[in-house]
Amino acid sequence: MENRDVIERIKSRKAFISDMDGVIYHGNKLLPGVPEFVEWLKRENKKFLFLTNSSERTQRELREKMLRLGIDLDEDVFYTSALATAQFLASQKPGGTAYIIGEAGLINALYNAGFTMNNYNPDYVVVGDTRSYSFEKIEQAVNLVLRGAKLIGTNPDLTGPVENGIIPATKALIAPIELATGRKAYFVGKPNPLMMRIALKKIGCSNEETVIIGDRMDTDIIAGIESEIDTLLVLTGISTLKTIDKFPYRPAYILDGVADLVQ
Fold it and tell me: How far apart are CA 73 and CA 79, in angstroms?
């Protein structure tokens, strides 16, 4: 199939679920073609959601970040692993309690889902991406889990990209609690298909009408495959054509970046 045919096939879809870092921006730098891509989504009345496994930022903070980069979007087009975690826990135990190691995005999401904070006998210990990480918090989390709290991670990413390299992400941060307690965490974010199903409900489209755009084979692409949603891998993030061969599955489509869709 010619590249032009591939692009037209992708553009004919009704809905787009797009990862952010590596697809829309790198750190604080917008990637090529993104303003035109967003304009096209709006002009064609496409349903779209910007999805991130990061749990640090609130929807408002993500909107403000995009505004600083010159793109104006409503708050509700952003969906994070923190929101998915809060929605999952509220469905499991309405009005539950949690001890949280995380930032504003996670704390706000759980509050808004009806959870209260509890550092004595919580239902859950919830860990997300954070820079305010300390031995005291880990010690408390370990003992709460040993006393019966369930261990939840917002996402299973080991690292996250920053402008000068990488930082440890949720799976790395939660590892000491898992090792010290002998309990395994349940992770809600990608590649858990749960996050994709919640996203589809949020935009009100079926999997057949939707394309997932991502830059990572181990989160975005496998999440799409396991949710039976067509996948588009872009090469503006961490993946290269060589990366694809390391995995036992392939994306439905591969483009250099979202710029290819609107040029």
Answer: 13
